[in-house]
Structure formats: C-alpha cells, structure tokens
Specification:
The structure is a single chain. This protein is of the alpha+beta class. Among the domains are: about 230-305, Actin, Chain A, domain 4 (Alpha-Beta Complex), CATH 3.90.640.10; about 400-505, Substrate Binding Domain Of DNAk, Chain A, domain 1 (Sandwich). The protein contains eleven helices and 28 strands. Strands 1, 2, 3, 4, 11 and 12 form a six-stranded mixed beta sheet that branches. A six-stranded mixed beta sheet has the order 19-18-13-14-15-20, with helices on both faces. A hairpin with a 2-residue loop joins strand 16 (about 275-285) and strand 17 (about 290-295).
C-alpha cells in the first residue's frame, strides 16, 4: 500500500512515496523531483509549476508565488502586510482576508491563497496518482513547527480539496529526523539534533531532543533575513553591476529585466552547487542588449560572507532559546532547497565541528521523505524499518500568557507556559485583590514575543464579580494532552468559580 509525504515549501513542493518497503521521491511529469510553487492565470488556462514560473516574465501581474507565506493568515497579520508590499500581483482586502486580483480567460477574478495552494496540491496529487493505489492517497503534510492551528488547518483543507486523504500534519524538524531514521532503528539513542532548514523565503532552525524513541522540540527560531532568495539577490546584484560596467545600462530600471536576471541567476546559483564555474547568458536582458558572463564558485562564496554570518548567528539564537550549548549538539541535519550551496553546509558543519552532519539526502527532498515514512507508520506498515513508529512529544508553538499592566499603567505580558512547553503541564498561581476591589478580569493570550504586548492574541477572558474584599483567587492552568488549556479561577472565601477551556496551538 502506498503512503505519501508532501512538503509544500515557499518556493517548491516535493512529494515522496513509501511503497513496497522503500521510500523515494516521485518525479513529476517533466521528470523533476521538485515542483515550483507557482500558479499563473492566462487567457487560455491556469498553469502550475515550471510552466507558470517560466511564463512569469511576460505575465508577472497574474503569476502568484510564495503563497505559503500568507496561507491561513489574516489581512492584518504583519507577515501578510510584508507580503502585500512586495507582491507584483494586485491584492485586495475581502472581509479581513487577502485575495489576489488576476486576469483569467478574459475576466477579472479573485483568487484566495487557498485557491492557489489547492491548485499546487492538485498538481502534486496528479504526480501521486502515477505511483499510488487507485484513489487511495493517504498522506502526511509537513509544516513548520511554529505554524498556528489556523495555518495547519488551512493546509489540510487545501490538500483534502485536491484529493489527498490527510492523516496528520507533521513538524518539518521531526520529518527531517524520520528521513534519516534517527530514533527509529535504535530507540536507546539519546542526543540533541539541530535541524537547519534553509528555504527559499525563510529559514527555520530547531533543536530536537531524542530519547527512547521520543522527539521533543526544545527550541525553534525563524528568520526571513536568511533564505535562498537572499543568496540569489546577492548574486543578481553582482551580475547587474557587471552589466552596468560593461554597457552603462541599469537593469533595475525595468521590472521585466530584473525578473529575467533573477531567473538566470537562480540557474547559475544551483549550477555552482555542483560545478566550480557557471555561465550566465541572457538574450535581450535590457534595451535589447544581450548579456553573457561567467561566475566562479569562489566569487559567489565571497559575495555571501554577510549571509553566512547570519546563518551561523541563528544557531546561537536557537541554542539560547533551547537553553542548550552548541557543544551539546551531537547531530546536525541540513535541509531545504536554499541549503544546496556548499558554503552553507560547510559553514554549519565547521561551526558545529563536534557534531555529526547528515547530508546524504538532497536537502530539498529530506522533509518529504520523512513525512512519507510517517505516513507509512500511520497506515500500518509492517516493514521492520518503520517498526518503532514515531512518537513526537507535542509542545506549544507559542507562549501562553496573561495580559496586564505594570506600575506605569503600560501593557505587559506575564508568561504562564513558555513556547515549546510539552503537553501535558499544570501550573497554579495565586492572585490577591487590593482592598475595596470586588471584581477581577483576566485576559489569557498567546504570543511569539513576550516583550511586545502588541503581538499578543487574546484567547479568552475570565471575569469574576461581587467578590469579597481582599479576595484571594487561586488560578489553575492545566495544559491537557490533547492540546487544550483548561483555566479554573476559584475565590477561596466564597468558593466562587469561573472556568474556561481553550484550544491552543501545538
């Protein structure tokens, strides 16, 4: 029986299948092992993948990329606002959600991020059908560990619409460990594993503690300042300068010229991952002038010095969050399409020189393979390779806190359960009301930055009235194993009780 793992990335998607005791990536109809997450609307059809990406130069205003960034996010979300500013496609606000306004078959239509993502999943499902068992497409979706419940549900809904039978969503960092069978073949293994995923538009770094076949994410950090696109930008800027030196023409004056240069630069960057030199040839780059140049790997690496420093800094950041020393990291998995350049893997392995680096699987295929192995476990595979199963300890993806005010009457957040707290957990606090205070109001929130109250999202509000003076309130926070938070407030003298149960992000 076939079981699929789907990794829907920001720039590309990968599909892996577990069948007949083996796991492998499934190539699409063009023979490519990854598919660009690009959807284009034209006068004739809706195209997905390579065709959409190649046609983007002439059809920029109707070609949608990086939809993963905004799927499951509201219009007001800071990430959505950043995306809107950079987008070359017209975007409008519809009832608090963003929609793409595109020309399609002669009409102007609104396409939601879910519509775009569903189209990409449909292309992946077509690929899956060539290696599946009829209409059965049991699958596991890999998503970033910091994704909210809304984002996870949005991905599940899109995949289900496309025809996949979604068994569960799996954190990308856990999928990476499964891809290399860490904790599967030997459940006595105990170690800290750093998973460094450098994607096309962002980078996620996680530290996972492995013990007795159990996986627990100790810490996670994410950055949009380090990404595959940033390496492309550095090389594109260099080539634009070379073009200007030779012809005194500025490529950046034309959006179309910039797009042509970026596409050629991406090819050049990937070539330098395997060869010492790469050629760049672009017909009619700007004002009818052809451009031909050669770039060495050494030149490319010298241009990326600042980016490499940022890559390494993220390791220190995640170690601080996980309260783990870099010397305590024993294994490293490097994954993500942006990690293909050798200088990235070299910098990480040199910085963590005592750790064993796993890089035998192509970095843009790692997560899909791990998700496929998890899908096989869930469908009941009897293969010995997967015998131990996957036991991830569920943890909070965001900090749960109480919102209050300090002595200066400024809003402040008081943490109850920190990010990455494992389920279940329990905590008790005591609140003493001031004299003549006979009511209490408590805002329970979740946040990603405890120092910035504006980022907090209110989950629930508890109000208690008609309390005795100098009331003492016992508050119990119970983070249950299924991912809900039960809060009970009990006033000791009157025994008045208020309680609420909240779904929190796992």
């Amino acid at each position: 029986m076939a079981a699929f793992g789907v990794h829907f990335g920001t720039t590309s998607a990968c599909l892996a299948v577990y069948k007949d005791g083996k796991t492998d990536v499934v190539a699409n109809d063009l023979g490519d092992r990854t598919t660009p997450c690009v959807v284009a609307y034209t006068d004739l059809d809706q195209t997905v993948g390579v065709a959409a990406k190649q046609g983007s130069i002439r059809n920029t205003a109707n070609t949608i990329s990086f939809v993963k960034s905004v799927l499951g996010r509201s219009w007001e979300d800071p990430v959505s606002q950043e995306y809107i500013k950079k987008s070359q496609v017209k975007i409008e606000n519809k009832n608090g959600d963003l929609v793409f306004v595109v020309d399609f078959k002669g009409d102007v239509i609104n396409a939601t991020p879910m519509d775009v993502a569903t189209a990409i999943y449909k292309r992946m499902k077509e690929t899956a059908s060539s290696h599946g068992d009829g209409d059965i497409h049991d699958s596991v979706l890999a998503v970033p560990s910091q994704f909210s419940e809304e984002q996870r549900k949005a991905f599940e809904k899109c995949a289900s619409r496309a025809g996949f039978s979604v068994l569960r969503t799996l954190n990308e960092s856990i999928a990476a460990l499964l891809a290399y069978d860490l904790g599967q073949m030997d459940n006595t293994l105990q170690c800290n594993v750093l998973v460094y995923r450098l994607g096309g538009d962002s980078t996620d770094v996680s530290i996972v503690h492995l013990q007795g076949g159990l996986y627990r994410i100790l810490g996670n950090t994410s950055s949009r300042d380090v990404a595959g696109s940033k390496f492309t930008n550095v090389l594109a800027d260099y080539l634009a300068q070379e073009f200007f030196k030779k012809y005194k023409l500025d490529v950046k004056e034309s959006r179309r010229s910039v797009n042509k240069l970026r596409m050629a630069t991406e090819v050049c960057k990937h070539t330098l991952s395997t060869l010492e030199n790469a050629q760049v040839s672009i017909d009619s780059l700007h004002e009818g002038v052809d451009f031909h140049s050669s770039v060495s790997r050494a030149r490319f690496e010298s241009l990326c010095g600042n980016l490499i420093q940022k890559c390494v800094a993220l390791i220190d950041d995640v170690c601080a969050k996980a309260n783990v020393s870099s010397s305590d990291i024993e294994k490293v998995i490097v994954c993500g399409g942006g990690a293909k350049p050798r200088l990235v893997q070299k910098a990480i392995s040199e910085y963590l020189s005592n750790a064993e680096v796993y890089n035998s699987i192509p970095p843009d295929e790692v997560i899909a393979i791990g998700a496929a192995k998890q899908a096989a476990i869930l469908t009941g595979s009897n293969d010995s390779e997967l015998h131990n199963g996957e036991n991830e300890i569920e943890c909070l993806s965001k900090t749960v806190c109480i919102k209050g005010v300090n002595a200066n009457k400024e809003p402040v957040l008081y943490p109850i359960f920190q990010e990455m707290t494992p389920f279940p957990a329990r905590k008790q606090e005591v609140m003493n009301l001031s004299p003549h205070q006979t009511s209490m109001e408590m805002d329970i929130c979740e946040c990603t930055d405890i120092e910035n109250p504006d980022t907090a999202k209110c989950l629930a509000k508890i109000v208690m009235k008609d309390l005795p003076e100098k009331a003492c309130i016992s508050v119990t926070f119970h983070l249950r194993s299924e991912g809900s938070l039960h809060v009970t407030c009990r006033e000791e003298a009157s025994q008045a009780v208020e309680q609420v149960t909240i779904d929190v992000c796992s």
